[in-house]
């Protein structure tokens, strides 16, 4: 019978490191392939050993990782928890290596813009209380930002973010390492990795490079709480979308309404549908033919952030549109 040995007990405070694009800029498209691991063990590299063992003993040995929908599938000692965003999707889980120089995850990103600011982020959660990981980002083998030590809040997803300027580089190898050697076998999960260029945040600039399949958020439209009547200050942003559709007569879009999880699921579904329809009605009133857009509500089913903070709930309350045809 195999036994898990933990060599030391570490108690630590969580230090979240946040970074963001400069004022007037926002994050562009995510350049990471298989960023949410829905394709499993593909499109990235690891110095750790991938394992498919079942029965809750896959990660008894250090320096291993697995792709799972529940950490307990990889080791019975782990708590049962869901991935960061999709409630049933895939995450990576790790039993940390004893070497601080081994990459838990890495991927080379190409076709970067020179002299451009990029934001690299990921979500992580501790899986055992007495062996917290300390994670650090490396870009082209150079440490970027400060180490991020997880605390003992099991399955509590936290975001780590750093910024990096590409200089003359047109590609970069991104890596995440566990650098905490005080505790052997640091156990942690990773999910939703992102690497994006900082681009001008105004909608007009973003639409100048629009492609089919892209999703754009209408960040400057406003409704009363729990209502769906557009406030007049929303018209400036909507007129940018209107101008884009006038200039691109072949464009067709899907307008999508989303809510947080406050209130009943039924009411949130109805609210999201009505807010999407309010935007659609504005476009039609201004002369856009109805066949060029659809309006759908997704309620609380597609969050982009956690709902346990006001900031997270605000991020989840949104109206977006997707370029279906261009």
UniProtKB/TrEMBL annotation:
This is OmpA family protein. InterPro entries: Bact_OuterMem_StrucFunc (IPR050330), OMP_bac (IPR006664), OmpA-like (IPR006665), OmpA-like_sf (IPR036737). The keyword Membrane applies. Residues 1-19 form the signal peptide. Keywords: Cell outer membrane, Membrane, Signal. It comes from the Bacteria. Residues 210-326 form the OmpA-like domain. It is found in: Cell outer membrane. Its main location: membrane.
């Amino acid at each position: 019978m195999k036994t898990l040995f933990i060599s030391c007990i570490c108690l630590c405070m969580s230090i979240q490191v946040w970074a963001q694009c400069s004022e007037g800029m926002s994050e562009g498209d995510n350049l990471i392939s298989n960023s949410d691991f829905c394709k499993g063990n593909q499109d990235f590299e690891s110095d750790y050993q991938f394992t498919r063992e079942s029965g809750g003993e896959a990660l008894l040995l250090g320096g291993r990782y697995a792709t799972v929908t529940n950490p307990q599938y990889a080791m019975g000692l782990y708590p049962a928890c869901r991935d960061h965003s999709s409630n049933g999707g895939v995450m990576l889980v790790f039993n940390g290596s004893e070497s601080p120089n081994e990459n838990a995850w890495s991927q080379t990103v190409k076709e970067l813009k020179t002299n451009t600011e990029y934001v690299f982020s990921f979500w992580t959660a501790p899986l055992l209380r007495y062996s917290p990981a300390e994670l650090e980002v490396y870009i082209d083998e150079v440490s970027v930002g400060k180490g991020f030590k997880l605390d003992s809040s099991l399955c509590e997803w936290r975001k780590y973010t750093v910024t990096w300027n590409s200089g003359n580089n047109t590609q970069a190898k991104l890596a995440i390492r566990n650098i905490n050697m005080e505790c052997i076998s640091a156990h942690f999960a990773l999910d939703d990795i992102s690497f994006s260029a900082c681009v001008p945040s105004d909608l007009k600039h973003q639409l100048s490079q629009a492609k089919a399949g892209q999703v754009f958020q209408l960040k400057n439209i406003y409704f009363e709480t729990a209502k769906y009547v557009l406030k007049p200050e929303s018209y400036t942003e909507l007129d940018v979308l209107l101008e884009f559709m006038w200039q691109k007569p072949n464009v067709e879009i899907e307008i999508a309404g989303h809510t947080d999880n406050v209130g009943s699921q039924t009411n949130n579904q109805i609210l999201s549908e009505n807010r999407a329809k309010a935007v659609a009605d504005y476009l039609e009133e201004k002369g856009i033919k109805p066949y060029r857009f659809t309006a759908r509500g997704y309620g609380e089913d597609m969050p982009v952030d956690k709902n346990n903070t006001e900031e997270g709930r605000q991020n989840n309350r949104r109206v977006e549109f997707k370029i279906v045809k261009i």
